[in-house]
Amino acid sequence: MSTPMLEVRGADVYYGASQILFNLDLTVEKGQTMALLGRNGAGKSTTFKAIAGLVPPRRGEVRLSGETVSGRAPYRIARAGIGYVPEDRQVFPEHSVEDNLIVAMKRGRRGEAYWTLTRIYEVFPILAGMRTRHAGRLSGGEQQMLTIARALMGNPDVLLLDEPSEGLAPIIVQAIGGLIRTLRGMGVTILLAEQNMHFCLDIATHATVVDKGQVVYRAPVAELRGNTAITQRYLAV
Ligand SMILES: Nc1ncnc2c1ncn2[C@@H]1O[C@H](COP(=O)(O)OP(=O)(O)OP(=O)(O)O)[C@@H](O)[C@H]1O
User: Fold this and answer.
1) Domains in the chain: how many in total?
2) List of residues 6+ apart from 69 with CB closer than 8 A
3) Which pLDDT band, with edges at 50, 70 and 90, does 222 fall under?
């Protein structure tokens, strides 16, 4: 098997004296859309912060295409190819949609420039229609699309999306879901954290379930769908 795109190996992660993740292992292969599922407080966001270098693991490591990136500063991890979209949609509110995209523009680590403004507008036509609008004027769903588009402008090898459906109306959640499916169809490698299992089942190819900071299940999504013992016990559905 080829080297995984993203690996977390044996990660112990703490906030101060509290241990939040315990010996956590996670693997995302190239082209997969991996759902990271678990209840509120299970450790999904902390896993993302550990990967992005905001809360580095005290033990264990994070590897991107086989290269250890944990221990580096967050901006260096981003530059290495990890595009992180945190839960709180951070846009520059006083700047236009297009300026928000342009400041994030960067070649990938092998010099790739697949994601350009033109391609972003093809995949996100809604942003094309509001390119001169101040980002602060966008709705929550539009801002979510903009933050995903901004992360892509950095030509990452893997895209981390932390609860992209959170707090959005069902019709917008559907639109975000459709967008992630489009990215999946384009071969983008995605790690998607979600509390909403139904949202994930339609989008992801694989699932990893965490509970109390530990991985309790991993399988292709089709298997999770049929596993009511797991979904009832860990996902409260
Ligand atoms: N900055 C922090 N300091 C201390 N504890 C924290 C901090 N952030 C989160 N925690 C705790 O870490 C645990 C895991 O939180 P985390 O945010 O990773 O969960 P989650 O699965 O992403 O859930 P949510 O959907 O609520 O974001 C929780 O018990 C939470 O209270």
Assistant:
1) 1
2) 53, 62, 63, 76, 77, 80, 82
3) very high
